[in-house]
Amino acid sequence: MNENIKHWKNGVKDGIPICLGYFAVSFTFGIVAKLEGLTPFQAVLMSATNYTSAGQFAALGLIGTSATYVEMAITQLVINIRYCLMSCSLSQKMDSKTAFLHRFLIAFGITDEIFGVSVCKEGKLNQFYNYGLMSIGMPGWVVGTFCGIVSGNLLPERIISALSIALYGMFIAVIIPPAKGNKLLSGIILLSMIISLLFTKISILRHISSGFKIIFLTVLIAGIAALLFPIKEVANER
Amino acid sequence: MNGNVYLYILVMAGVTYLIRVIPLTLMRKEIKNGYMKSFLYYVPYVTLSVMTFPAILGATANIWSASAGFIIALILAYRGNSLFKVSLLACLTVFIIELIV
C-alpha cells in the first residue's frame, strides 16, 4: 500500500507542470466559451467530462453554428482518435492483471500530456502514478475553465503567456533525455518536428485539423520507423 | 445556438471516453508481434515531437519569448533536469523575455 502512495506522490509532483499548463489553456477556453454564449456551469461541465483541449475548442465552434449531434460526434472522433493510439500504447505499459476498474478510471485521464508523461516512465506502469497525475492535472483544467469564463481578465496576460509554454516544456523534458546518445531516436524526433513544420507551411495541408495531423504523422512516421528499425530486446524491457 | 448544450456535451463526452477506454480494456495481453511492439515504442516520441513543434513557437505572446523558452527547455532537458524544473524554467524564461522585449 505504501508503494502505491509513493507512486501517487510521484505522479502529483510530475503533474504540477501539467496543472499549470492546463490552467493557461483552459483559461483561454473559458474566455472563448463565454464568447460563444455558454454559462459558467456548462463550460465547467464540458471541461470536467471531456478533458480534451482541441476537442472542446472545436465543440464551441460547432455549438455556435448549431451543428447536428452527428456532426459533433464525428468531429470529436476525428480530433480525438489519437487517444485511441495512446490508449493502445498505454495498454502495453500496464500489467496485464490490472483490474478493469483501474482501466476504466485511467482511460478517462488519457490526454496528450498524461499519456506523454506516463508512457515514458521506466518499467511497468503503476496505476497510482496516473492517479497522481490526474488528481493534480484535472483540477487545473476545471478551475482554469471556471476562472476564464467568470473573469476574462483575472490574470495578467503576461502570466497566461508564460504558462502557455509549460506543457511544451514538459513534452521536451519527456522526449529529450531518452534521445540523448541515441542517434536513432534523435533522428526520429528531429524528422517528426521537421515534417510537422512542413505541414503548417504547405498550403494544401495547412487546413488539416491539428488532432488529425498528429495521428496521421504518428502512424506514418512510427510505422515506417518500426519497419526500418525494429527495436531490439534491450529496448523491449524499457 | 439552437441545440441543447447539455446534449452536445453528452455526445462529445461519450465519443471521447469510448475512444480512450476501448483499447485500454480490450488490449489486456502483451503484444508479441515485433512490428507492433516497435511501432508502439516509437509512438510517444513521434506524437510528442509533432505536438511540440512548431506549435511551441506560437504558444506565447511573441515568437522571441517562445523561442527562448524552447531553447532553455531543450538545454535543461538534455542535461537531465526534472519535468518540473524544465517546464517551470521555460515559463520563467518566457516571462522575463516578455518583460524586456
Task: Provide structural commentary.
The complex is a heterodimer of chains A (238) and B (101). Chain A has 238 residues and is mostly helical. Chain A has two domains: 2-173, no CATH class; 181-238. Chain A contains 13 helices and no strands. Mean pLDDT of chain A is 86; it is low at 233-238. Chain B is mainly alpha-helical. The chains are: A mainly alpha (238), B mainly alpha (101). The interface between A and B is large, with 108 and 78 residues.
Terminal Cα separation of chain B, in Å? 42 Å
Q: Tally the helices of chain A: what do you get?
A: 13
Q: Total domains of chain A, how many?
A: 2
- The overall average pLDDT of chain A, rounded, is 86
Task: Provide mean pLDDT of chain B, rounded.
Answer: 88
Structural class of chain B: mainly alpha
Shape of chain A: globular
- Specify Rg of chain B, calculated over alpha carbons: 20 Å
Whole-number tally of structural domains of chain B: 1
Q: Count interface residues per chain for the largest interface.
A: A-B, 108 and 78 residues
Specify the structural class of chain A. mainly alpha
User: What global shape of chain B is seen?
Assistant: flat
Element-by-element helix/strand order of chain B:
HHHH
Helix content of chain A: over 70%
Return residue spans of chain B where pLDDT drops below 50 for at least 5 consecutive residues: none
